[in-house]
Specification:
Blueprint: H1 18-26, H2 34-38, E1 49-52, H3 59-72, E2 86-89, H4 93-106, E3 114-117, H5 123-132, E4 136-139, H6 141-150, E5 160-163, H7 166-171, H8 175-184, E6 190-195, H9 200-209, E7 214-217, H10 221-224, E8 228-235, H11 240-249, E9 255-259, H12 263-275, E10 280-283, H13 289-300, E11 306-309, E12 322-327, H14 334-341, E13 351-358, H15 362-371, E14 377-380, H16 384-401, H17 407-419, H18 422-435, E15 464-465, E16 472-473, E17 484-488, H19 498-509, E18 516-521, E19 526-530, H20 532-542, E20 554-556, H21 559-568
Parallel strand pairs: 1-6, 1-7, 2-4, 2-5, 3-4, 5-6, 8-13, 8-14, 9-11, 9-12, 10-11, 12-13
Antiparallel strand pairs: 15-16, 17-19, 17-20, 18-19
Helix pairs in contact: 6-8
Amino acid sequence: MTPTAEDLPKTLPAAVHPALASALAAQGYSQLTPVQMAMLEDGHADADLLVSAQTGSGKTVAFGLAIAPTLLAGAERFGAPDRPLGLVIAPTRELAMQVQRELDWLYAVAGIRIATCVGGMDMRNERRALDRGAHLVVGTPGRLRDHITKGSLDLGALRAVVLDEADEMLDLGFREDLEFILAAAPPQRRTLMFSATVPRGIAELAKTFQHDAVRVAASAASQQHADIEYQLMLVRRDEREHAIINTLLDSDSGSALVFCHTREAVRHLTARLANRGFSVVALSGELAQSERSSALQAMRDGRAHVCVATDVAARGIDLPNLDLVIHADVPSNPETLLHRSGRTGRAGRKGVCVLIVPEHRRGAAAKVLSLAKLMATIRPAPGIAEIETRYRRQILETALASPPADETEARFVAELVGQMTPEQIAVAYLRQQLATRPVPEDILPIAISPGTVKPRREKRSGEDFSREGASVREPRGPDMVGGVWFTISLGRKQRADPKWLLPMICKAGGVTRRDVGSIRIDDAETRFEISADKAEAYAEHLTRAGSLERGISIAPAGQAQARTLEAKGKEKFKGKPKFKGKRPEGQPDRPPWKPKGRGAKRPG
């Protein structure tokens, strides 16, 4: 039954259709976001719209409100489903499914039937759903075009088309598909385009397929992120994962999203968190659609509380009660930062965004925040004492909130009190509670001045890549005394370069750059110096599986070889090595294995 005017929430505008207003009230909406209010303005009800709206601004509900008068045409409810009256096009499967879920509850009182057509799903099931009839279809460009071409999707009765994340669809190469779909729709339909920005491609598309479109500019990105508290957490470079673990333990968040640059980083961090007792799922492009859907569903129904993801999750994923986003890697540009962070602080909810920043990457983080016009509070990583204090408080609050014992429990409580002292019972309860909580990591403190991050020019960590002798030195003061020499089976023939050799050397032996002295590159190998106090542990670390890429080896240099090296002195460096190809993003320690010249082969 459609509610009457007296039943509607008084805080929502009268222009909202009564059935939709009832659904909004049931979801806890007391007021609308700026982009949602803009859809209800006079003159927008029948017009084509070109809308600038950032992620997290509530635009799914916004276009749901905008097309409601067109789809319902004055009726209180939809009639029997037949050919679709509305079409929503989204760039990704995840976003399309999210849109379908949002519009399902928004139009539930109006009796809508929605069909989805997205890549990666069984096309036969989609065809059967279309044959049964639908009021609204939500899909991705390629799959929608397939259905139109095969005759299973008839757009002849279409009244409204919505392009969600239109700029993203053009970036992904869907322009031809979009033009095909829009050309198949009736010319008299309404066309609404939602886009974070309006580049030339969007303007041309609007000019071709819209009629006298009304331009609507919603709040700017910085305003949309006003509900997000940004924190820049400075850590030592070898304690990044420890900081992530402690940040999760120190948070009251019901669910958290952790972003990494690469799939390998997602796999590694997911395994690390699972081993520490977190209920965690992974989300990356290498997973099948069913695995990605299962991971998201686990987050939505509370079976998982942490999701580790690549940027595949940065657009279109809306997780309930997500109030913590962690950037395990510093975002490479402001757009990535905003899209990732926009998963929290959505539609009026508050959120926290934490950037885990190694000390030497502070400048890069400040630059990205500055370009995104965001301010972040600088803070250290939570320590053991802080987390244990939180644990004790939570345990006490849980105990105080427990209801009185019922009859069955009372008998056993009396038995416990008869055999144990209250102190013994309290100790047992405390130990039981602590056993269910992950143990926090020990993090060395960093001296941090209070305040907010300020833009500064990014600098390297003090490295001086000397051209004489291809030597690399950290700012250690005097030359390293008593260092132990090692060799790595990469040289000029493999286009060895100190810029990527140094991170590889550190990672292989579990040391920092300050533990590495000179690096000298020969034709077939490279010799490098490890400080005497770390040399034994370095050699032991090399024996562990997985410390080096296949075909590369590191071993201690012979004593005679070391003496020869000292006598020889620094060898002239003959210029910057050249190589073809590009180092993969997010993998600075991986050599660009595409050397020029005859006889240059990849090791192993």
